[in-house]
Design brief:
- 2 copies of one chain form a homodimer.
- Chain A has 6 helices and 4 strands; from the N terminus they run ββααααββαα.
- By secondary structure, the first copy, chain A, is mainly alpha-helical.
- In chain A, a hairpin with a 7-residue loop joins β3 and β4.
- In chain A, α1 crosses α5, α2 packs across α5 and α3 crosses α4.
- Chain A is globular, with a radius of gyration of 20 Å.
- The structure holds a DNA duplex.
Chain lengths: 167, 167
DNA sequence: AGCATTGATTGTGTTTTACAATTATCTAGT
DNA sequence: ACTAGATAATTGTAAAACACAATCAATGCT
């Protein structure tokens, strides 16, 4: 690939992918967010391929939420996942069929369900947590530990900020 | 959104969504990345709903790449998008039918195509860039300008690091 | 010339995803 | 207490995204 004239007023490193300068993407946060999401998601799919939560768009989150919040309702999970209730219900179906969680009817509200982790699900949750930690160590090893906290705070702030603006 | 049900005992709020403590998600970068991606993507879909590139999973990137790299090949776009060639080909089909780009056959390699922006596409690209900039200003206004560069560098490093590990 | 490689398209089947409609339960107002 | 409206969840369905296999054409290497 020929070396193009470097952009005059742009001092950011014009880094390339497939021989293409990426500065044409307007240096948009959103593009990198999406790309990182794609890589991380695929990698996570591979690492969890042998588990009930494989190919997870929301199964992992649902499992960990139930594990950490006994008696949680499907609608609460839906809100965290930012999915509608039907989609969330099917994720829960899947986990129930696999024997990782169980449904009970909420004592305070007969309409609602209360979800609880099973022994099998609890073991699975622990396994998933280990996998997530491994992935984090592998992918973010270039960030020194003290900067990881900073990065995490930045992501949390972005997430909170965005959620607040949506309503 | 549900009402905040926990102004009772805790003052060091550990960060909740829908009344649920989120620390059960293992403080995983990947979870926040995915959530932010979902919010940003939906918002971008709304902002571009009236354009040819609406509902874009890759159309916007493809358009900007062609605009910034005259003569680019579909396979190069596929590599940036991290999609397979069939998926990329259909995105290009869509943009060609809409009259935003045009195909020519590459002079150096008769198998390959060389893609060029049209006047219509060029105007669209400018419009898209404006929208992206607006979105960035809206969503990341909580980050002071000097920290935005830092955040951006962090994202770029994460992206590069991940891509390198995939090979 | 022969053969493996690369660029691109078409076709197909699976999986997501959102939306509408339905049932059951709760809450509020009269 | 009773009705009206809101909320929790499920089922059904249609549209869209996505990956994989097969095919065809052009290139390059030996």
């Amino acid at each position: 690939m020929t070396k193009p004239p470097t952009p005059s007023e742009n001092e950011a490193q014009p880094f390339t992918v497939a021989g293409l300068r990426m500065d044409v993407l307007e240096g948009a946060f959103s593009w990198y967010i999406r790309a990182i999401d794609a890589v991380v998601s695929r990698d996570l799919d591979q690492r969890t391929a042998h588990l009930d939560v494989a190919k997870g768009k929301g199964k992992i989150t649902a499992l960990l939420l139930v594990d950490g919040h006994p008696g949680i309702r499907p609608s609460q999970i839906a809100e965290v996942l930012m999915r509608d209730r039907p989609a969330t219900g099917r994720i829960i179906d899947h986990l129930v069929k696999a024997g990782d969680i169980r449904r009970e009817s909420d004592a305070e509200d007969q309409r609602a369900q209360a979800l609880y982790i099973t022994d099998k699900g609890s073991a699975l949750a622990q396994e998933v947590r280990d996998i997530i930690r491994e992935q984090q160590d592998d992918f973010f090893d270039f960030i020194p530990p003290e900067d990881r906290d900073e990065f995490m705070r930045m992501l949390q702030r972005a997430y909170i900020n965005m959620r607040n603006k949506l309503k």
